[in-house]
Amino acid sequence: MPQPTTPPHGEVLSASTQGARAQLSALATASGSGPLLDLPMPADPRRAAVLMLFGVLDGYPSAHDADARAVSRDLDVLLLARATTLRAHPGQVAFPGGRIDPGDGGPVDAALREAQEETGLDPAGVEVLGVLPEIPLAFSQHLVAPVLAWWRHPSPVRVVDEAESADVFRAPVADLLNPANRGVTVIRRDGQEWRGPGFLVRHATGEHLVWGFTGMVLEALFDRLGWSEPWDDTRELPLVLPETG
Fold first, then answer.
1. What sign for the dihedral angle of Cα 56, 136, 165, 227?
2. Do 44 and 143 contact (CB within 8 A), yes or no?
3. What does the pLDDT look like over 91-129, one tens digit per residue?
4. Dihedral, CA atoms, 51, 52, 53, 54, nearest 10 degrees?
5. Nearest 5°: phi and psi at 112?
6. Phi first, then psi: what are they for 48, rounded to 5°?
7. Helix, strand, coil proportions of the chain in percent (round to 5)?
8. CA distances (Å), 126 to each of 62, 101, 121, 192, in order?
9. 28: which DSSP letter?
10. pLDDT of res. 121
């Protein structure tokens, strides 16, 4: 039986967790792989980056045994809930990230800078595995570079600016994969219908709904890695949208 190994920064990784990191790293360095999502290209996009940071939970592991052997109960991904007062995507769950500023050296610098500003994490403890192909996001006129990373030396995270974020949390990946926590969000407006993947993340006082761009990226990533489990794509999850003016 494979034995746990101790990386340079001291945390012990189980065989299954090593497998998750290895699969993420292989995806990040694969040549010729297309973007996770095939979406329409904006006419004049602005470049942005998000940090998709995986690691090992320091508490509250999932109760769900994932089908994928690489997904241990303590594998997690860092997410945040945007403040409900924001004009753009209020209340939505997102990866840390934002626009690439002129002073940034590229998507990696931007993703780490934004993550530190939004969650208070220490970038020195983050191992960047690679940058995936950019994803076009026509709605907000952005080209988003997903930066895949591993939290080799976790640091505390928190809401740094309450005007920007309502919550910062580490979601167990097994919980996201659990079919009981999956469904679709449906927006019906002006005779049209838009459907997308949704994930429920429970916490002490309720649950977060992961949907929209973040939900699509997570679903595409899990599918690409072979981690997804069969789920009911006819189950509609309650979605409360902000009123439009």
1. negative
2. no
3. 789 999 999 999 999 999 999 999 999 999 999 999 999
4. 180
5. -70, -40
6. -145, 170
7. 25, 30, 45
8. 23, 20, 9, 42
9. H
10. 97
* Burial class of residue 211 in the structure, from the number of CB atoms within 10 Å of its CB (0-12 exposed, 13-18 middle, 19+ buried): buried
Tokens of 62: 């999932």
DSSP string, 98-167: EE--TTSSSHHHHHHHHHHHHH---GGGEEEEEEPPPEEEGGGTEEEEEEEEEESS------S-TTTEEE
Question: Is residue 234's pLDDT more than 50?
Answer: yes
Note the pLDDT tens digit of each residue in 63-88. 999 999 999 999 999 999 988 665 65
Structure tokens at 153: 């030396």
Nearest to 97 by CA among 51, 129, 138, 142: 51
pLDDT tens for each residue of 188-217: 888 888 899 999 998 877 899 999 999 999
Please tell me what DSSP assigns to residue 81.
Answer: E
For residues 6 and 14, the answer to whether their CB atoms sit within 8 Å is: no
Q: Give the distance from CA 83 to its chain's centroid.
A: 17
Helix (H, G, I), strand (E, B) or coil at 27: helix
HEC letters along 160-185: CCCCCEEEEEEEEHHHHHCHHHEEEE
Phi, psi (degrees; rounded to nearest 5) at 93: -85, 140
Record the pTM: 0.89
Residue 224 token pair: 């690409």
Please tell me whether residue 224 adopts helix, strand or coil conformation.
Answer: helix
At residue 192, the pLDDT reads: 85
